[in-house]
Amino acid sequence: MLQKIADTVRALSADAVESAGSGHAGMPLGCAEIGAYLFAKEIKYNPEAPDWFNRDRLVLSAGHGSIWLYSLLHLAGYDLSLEDLKQYRRFQSKTPGHPEYKVTPGVEMTTGPLGQGFAHAVGMALAEEILAKKYNKKNYNLVDHYTYVVAGDGDLMEGISYEAASLAGSLELDKLIVIYDHNQVSIDGPTDITFIDDIKKRFSSANWQVISAIDGSSFSDLESAFKKAKEEKQRPTIIIADTVIAKGIAAKEGDSSAHASPLGKEEIIKMKKKVGLPTEEFEVPTAVYDYFKAHLSDCKSRFAEWQEIKSDYAIKFDRDYQEFKSGIELKVDINFDDLKIDLNEIKAIRNYAGEYYQKLAEKLPYLIGGTADLSASTRINLDQYADIKRGNFAGRNIKFGVREHAMAAAAGGLMLHGGLRPVIATYLTFSDYMRPSIRMAAMMGLPVIYVFTHDSIHVGQDGPTHQPIEQLESLRMIPNLRVIRPSTAAEVKLAWKSAANEKDGPVALVMARQAVKAYNKEINNEEFDKGAFIVSDEINPDIAIMAAGSEVETALKIKEILKKDYKVRIISAPEKEKLYHKPEYLEQLFKNVKLSAAIEAGNPNGWYRVLQGKALAFGVEDFGFSADGDQIAAEFGLTAEKIAKKIKASL
After folding, report:
1. What predicted TM-score, i.e. pTM, was given to this entire model?
2. Of 42, 404, 553, 600, which is the active-site residue?
3. What distance in Å separates the CA atoms of residue 206 and residue 170, rounded to the nearest whole number?
4. What's 150's DSSP letter?
5. Which CATH class is domain 336-510?
6. Model pLDDT for residues 212-267, shown as the tens digit of each residue
7. E strands within 153-242?
8. How far apart, in whole angstroms, are the C-alpha atoms of residue 346 and residue 512?
9. Residue 404 is among the residues annotated as catalytic for this protein
């Protein structure tokens, strides 16, 4: 029966790609036996409860092979019909060209950019370890599952896979199993034209169990490989499965041309005839459906067993269960006013951010943090808790090492798994290393919290490599990513509150390295949530100056310089993008002024979108220098005196 299932997966995949006129049939045909074994024998799931918390996670990192996964989900009984398979790659279908989170039942995450699935799966496996350590009791394994990844040659070429594999090995994530689709073919030809790595040595050196010489089309080989993988208790496992791209299509087998193109109707019919399948399009043998109907009862039985464990657990360990449940639901039923920090001390904005994070974590036990070897510099570390490391998953601080890209992806994986909410930090300039994974979080709507410190040229002597210029505005351009840059301790508190309450997408909190003098006005939640608000005003102002972060202090100094000649309104805009959708409010902020101006120690282009009438934007559009921050600001004309002079001249 397993072979019949594999043959059916080949047929459905080939038919769907042919019907769509495009797509990737090579991988699905090459990995059909792997898929059949996973869904028919190996993984724990329930298609009638696809979000079952204790299910095994299966991530298709080689996302171009999406029709492989869709075909298997359909056969296994998920809410994915044959008609859905026929709509493969069509507008608003449940079967898009690459897997998309929340679009297709059973798809664990959006994949397509190679390496991302592999790295996110490391976060999923880490989440399983942390939650199991925290909540499992004797005879009550609330969290006990594996994370599986199907990855191809391209995934392992991508640099992020190196970072993530190293992290997983260092943490000894033994319940992570990667199946490497080793078909040795890339779009441009055989992989050996660019990729001659010894994968066994690479992963062995990173503390992985390597199971090689596995025939990817042999069910006995696959059975023994998965058994051996689960016997390993101190290392993640990679199974190197030798496969043939487009297996079954004689004219395309093993050829790079099979990667991303239809296979031809005649060839598909020949393939079906050879294995005894009906030659009609999208025809599934009754025996295959019958098998999965019977298998469904086993799936439901395992699910029912877990439900019973959960119910008994909730009665016997009520406090732990409520905490566990609050992490899944991301409950924020706390009084933020109880989280006291001294707002009057003059200290770096990043220090306030770290201090408030510690307070918040005491109230929200599902918060878990980590940095890319910068805990002391970013101040994102829960000093009262232990570090998470191999052999100890009871802490709340993840040491990711100097692996920003893998850190961002693993954070996405932690969030996808559920039960935890990651807070990760590094310098703003190094957000460039994280950007692909940040984009994935925004696309999937994952409420990861990023804390970026050292946010401008005021980093100073470390020089232009560490001074962000374009990073801030480029992050603001990512759809569904909120970027908040507070200017005072009070704004930091409001920013954390806003981030904690955000459940529909990621939030980047951008913090200055240096101390900033606060304004006197108190700002409430309602004002802060508008994205911008007046912090110093005059009746019938001549000039309105908008700024964010540390530049609000500069704006207030400008007002002092100009006060004899002009009435100046100062506006703090920690979340400028909200103003794009509030034209009436913007008009109110700049009403009747002779000049609107904006100041930010970064690329100023985005500010022109909010300024009105006669306008000036002051920023930085070139790389900085290794010097004192104030000296660099003066060089770029970003001192209060120089900006005031330009404003006067323009009027």
Report:
1. 0.97
2. 404
3. 7
4. E
5. alpha beta
6. 999 999 999 999 999 999 999 999 999 999 999 999 999 889 888 878 788 999 99
7. 176-182, 185-186, 189-190, 209-215, 237-242
8. 13
9. yes
Judged against a pLDDT cut of 90, whether residue 507 lies above it is answered with yes
How far, in Å, CA of 216 to CA of 271, rounded? 19
Helix (H) or strand (E) holding 88: none
Please indicate whether the domains covering 336-510 and 532-650 agree at the CATH topology level.
Answer: yes
What is the Cα gyration radius of the chain? Answer: 28
- Token digits of residue 287: 């025996």
Alpha-carbon distance of 202 to 204, in angstroms, equals 6
Sort 139 into a burial class: Cβ within 10 Å, 0-12 / 13-18 / 19+.
Answer: exposed
What is the DSSP track for 207-220?
T-EEEEEEETT-HH
Closest of 579, 581, 616 to residue 600, by C-alpha? 616
Give the model's pLDDT for residue 1: 96
Instruction: State the alpha helices, DSSP H only, in 379-422.
Output: 404-417
Superfamily of domain 2-299: Thiamin diphosphate (ThDP)-binding fold, Pyr/PP domains (3.40.50.970)
- Nearest by Cα to 573 from 530, 619, 612: 530
CA end-to-end distance (rounded Å), the chain: 82
CB atoms within 10 A of CB 574: 27
DSSP state of 517: P
Unique residue bearing structure tokens 């993008």: 577
Query: CATH class for domain 532-650?
Result: alpha beta
The residues spanned by each domain of the chain are: 2-299, 336-510, 532-650
pLDDT digits (tens, 9 = 90+) for 339-370: 888 888 889 999 999 999 999 999 999 999 99
Q: Which residue has the tokens 């990679």?
A: 238
Other beta carbons less than 10 A from residue 81's beta carbon: 12
**Interatomic CA distance for residues 259 and 64, integer angstroms:** 9
What pLDDT is attached to residue 345?
Answer: 82
| Residue at token pair 């904005």 | 349
